[in-house]
Design goal:
By secondary structure, the protein is mainly α. It has 5 helices and 2 strands.
Length: 121
Amino acid sequence: MNFDNSQPIWMQIYELILSRIASTEWAEDERIPSVRELGATLVVNPNTVMRTYERLTDEGLIYNRRGIGYFVAYGAKARAAEIARERFITEQLPSLFARMKSIGMSAEELVKLYNDYTDEK
């Protein structure tokens, strides 16, 4: 994974895992990589992964079965999608809207571009 200097590594890992849960790449009640496994895969310190897992646990997205490992919690897919949506609305849309305003782009133009994009996919 190529990390971006604009946000902490643990937060980028958090978003990666959130995406995997929301897309069901990691299904509910499925075991996920251990802290050490994911740290080795991503080439990061296991403490960084642990910080991410603690946040995901606090948010009820994953849970720990002592001695067995971490698992995706029931209902995590819907919750992950909700969290990602909230973050998009509060963190990314404001800068998009500001940029649109600065270049004189209308909401209608954005909707057309979005529709064209989704039609292609």
